[in-house]
Amino acid sequence: MVKRLRTVQTAVFIYDCSRLIFLLMLLVSYLKQEADPVLFRGLPLPYMMYTAPNALFPLMALFLFLNFDTFRVYVPLYITGKSLSLLCMLIWLFFALQQFVFTAGGFSGQILLGALSRVLWAVFLCAADIGTIMGMLVMREEALPVLPVEAGLNTGGGE
Fold this sequence. Notes:
Elements: H1 2-28, H2 45-51, H3 56-66, H4 68-71, H5 75-103, H6 109-142
């Protein structure tokens, strides 16, 4: 049980670190070559604001990996945050796919391939986020404290 819990903790931590890198790559891929500092076009600042909250997931996974007993109270927060992040990514995918389908005829092959690769990365991130939510649910269930039962304890309703 402890070995499986440690394996899940390691996998979640490694995935969260790589997810942050992939998310940064996905969002920075929208940057334009010519930056306009007045309208914030082409600058990394607005995109960094989207990725900064996602930097908390590798930190939570690291602390859960280092000392699970102390930080186990943060597992529901992790699951809630991942669920919210997953919901936002699914909403973005919905609109990105609509734009991709309706404007695919007017793009050159290179632009179309770039848009498709961003959508495929987002689908991969959504699927892996579901996996980390499931992993955290497994960790939460396996780490629930087992209360000792006293011998001879009468649990009946009588005297």
